[in-house]
Amino acid sequence: MAAIQLQNYTLVITGAPYSSQAPQTALAFARATLAKGHRVDRIFLYGDGVHLASALSSPPSDETHWPGEWAGFLKESGIPGVVCIASALRRGLVDDAEQKRHELVASNLLEPFIIAGLGEWVESTMTSSRIIYFHAGG
Amino acid sequence: MAAIQLQNYTLVITGAPYSSQAPQTALAFARATLAKGHRVDRIFLYGDGVHLASALSSPPSDETHWPGEWAGFLKESGIPGVVCIASALRRGLVDDAEQKRHELVASNLLEPFIIAGLGEWVESTMTSSRIIYFHAGG
Amino acid sequence: MKPIATLHILNKAPEHSRSVECMRSLRAGDALLLTESAVLAIATTDVHDPNTTVYALKADVLARGLDDCASETHLVDFPAMVDLTAQAQNIISW
Amino acid sequence: MKPIATLHILNKAPEHSRSVECMRSLRAGDALLLTESAVLAIATTDVHDPNTTVYALKADVLARGLDDCASETHLVDFPAMVDLTAQAQNIISW
Amino acid sequence: MSTLIVIDQPPYGTWAGREALDMAFSLAAFDQSVSLLFTGAGVNWLRKSQKTDGIEQKSIEKNLSAAPIFGVKAMFAEASACARYGLTIENMLAGVAIAENSSNLLHQYSHTAFSG
Amino acid sequence: MSTLIVIDQPPYGTWAGREALDMAFSLAAFDQSVSLLFTGAGVNWLRKSQKTDGIEQKSIEKNLSAAPIFGVKAMFAEASACARYGLTIENMLAGVAIAENSSNLLHQYSHTAFSG
Fold it and tell me: Domain limits of chain E?
């Protein structure tokens, strides 16, 4: 088998958990990517994908907790999980800073996800050798 | 013009704001329904529609705040806005009681929306003379 | 207004598979109400069933710049949409 | 593995308009990877382009009970999916 | 009121079918008349031997097989969609009736609902 | 890297097109090469005189007209989709090139993205 060149990936997730399969497929792919020796520069949540970063998701105990699984993977691997600020604010995902700025009653961003702009995705287009999108199916 | 019999409606919203147009179409329809003298028994949020009840949504100031618009309409009209508990818990929408039960860091349900089961929708199928669904488009 | 057996409310673009199913399900005596992305159907050359009255939500037609294409379609506002739903025997929201 | 010009990753059911577009865009030297709902394509009688190698994610094929239909499709696991993406010159996620 | 719940979305890739089933089971639990119609890619919910371990979702097969026990009156699958997806009596769950014309069926219920 | 952002979803009924435009404008703002391709129902973003007051959404028309100023390299519309939706030079926004074969176009960019 020919040697495969090592790549550095950015994974963009635009499908929400418990609505699409995107976060599940992306997590299995991310794990396999690391196992194969590649690098993952960042995970970027965009559009409805931002719901993956909710600290308040409480699926039934016999279903996989996708935000929790993802948060665990990000912590273990040290890969940054970036949530697009424009998508997040419209859809009600905020960290403490945004809670204060917008005078909201609570914050609900799950650690270690962080909120940042589309500039992070632009940086990925400049520096990652592979960008893979995980959209909602249907 | 022939007289139209007065009806009592239930509106079911399954499309999320800032992802689908469903909450907007449903609100204009709900207002017209009351203006025409009909009754609205309840609004029921199901599936991705539960995001309409987020207290943390912060769209840009030049865009309509759909959760706020809906909450205002429900308060004025006294119509119950019911959020399906199973859809809501998976998607990270919780009131104070669910926050405690699931030991979560915050609650984010916008007043006057309340969380209840699919039984409320079943009741609508028994008692409302019209049920109109507002799904995501695409 | 003519009596309506089933009012079909469609909010999906003509490409959507549910839109295709909806069109197939129309019968004489039914009415079709196009809302949201479904109003794009009035810009296509798809043949309309002459047995079905077609309505379209005016706000959605204007938003998509389609007022000039709407000659064979009855434009309705929200109060008229309410009348259609109050009057129809059955309603299917596609 | 053969070199892949463009790897098309498709996750939508055959009814979906983007699925139709994806199928139209395949060229000799490209590869098609079916994931999620797109694996349902292997149960349909739709003709496959013989110039394109078709892969399908095994976990998704099994979940839909389609292991018996997969004769002309290369079943891959996630490590093999990673290899495909690492090796392809371009990737389009439909 | 008799309700027809329509499932036209494929299994596992979206939650819509699952949430449609919940609607049907809720009606049945309150002794309301409810039937299910599978059309389009939705007929794939009815295929036998769904092995979902690899995607970390619960298989829906058992729930569907139990639908009559829970009080769901009938389950229909659209003939043309079954043909398209190669679904036959052999590889389909038991207890499903083939509907040659789903449009006829739609017009027989006073209330029709999709889950999303 | 040269990026092609593809918009195949209809205007206003979903947010996907809007969020695709944001992606394109962000790339342009960082002086990255980016073009837009409108296909399928997405070509309807390009129709003139969108009057969105009645649906309480901002019209996207101005943003699209300003795309070249913001640094978007080219805007393409797929010919067959334009024909299907009756879009012609007369009723389309200025500055859009007709793409006879969008598949050719897809293969010319090193990075292709849909917004959702």
Answer: 2-48+58-114
Q: Are D90 and D7 in contact (CB under 8 A)?
A: yes
pLDDT of residue A93: 98
Return the pLDDT at C65: 96
Chosen CATH of B8-56+63-134 out of 3.40.50.1370, 1.10.3720.10, 3.40.1260.10, 3.30.70.20:
3.40.1260.10
Percent of chain A with pLDDT over 90: 96
Distances (CA, A) of B81 to A89, A109, B19, B45, B136: 23, 25, 20, 8, 19
Chains C, D in contact, 3 or more Cβ pairs below 8 Å: yes
pLDDT at position D1 is 61
> Which chains have at least 3 CB atom pairs separated by less than 8 Å from chain E?
A, B, C, D
Domains detected in chain D:
4-86 (3.40.1260.10)
* Interchain pair E32, B122: CB under 8 A: yes
* Distance between A31 CA and the closest CA of chain E, angstroms: 14
B65 is catalytic: no
**B-chain residues within 8 Å CB-CB of A94?**
56, 58
Region of residue C45 (left: phi > 0; alpha: psi -120 to 50; beta: else): alpha
- Which helix (H) or strand (E) is E60 found in, with range? none
Residues of chain D with pLDDT under 70: 1, 47-49
* CB-based contact A137 E58, cutoff 8 Å: no
**CATH code assigned to F2-48+58-114:** 3.40.1260.10
- Number of A:F CB contacts under 8 A? 46
Nearest chain B residue to A63 by CA distance is B90
Tell me which amino acid residue D60 is.
Answer: D
For residue F11, report the phi and psi dihedrals to the nearest 5 degrees: -75, 145
Q: Which residues in chain F (15-54) have CB-CB distances under 8 A to chain B?
A: 15
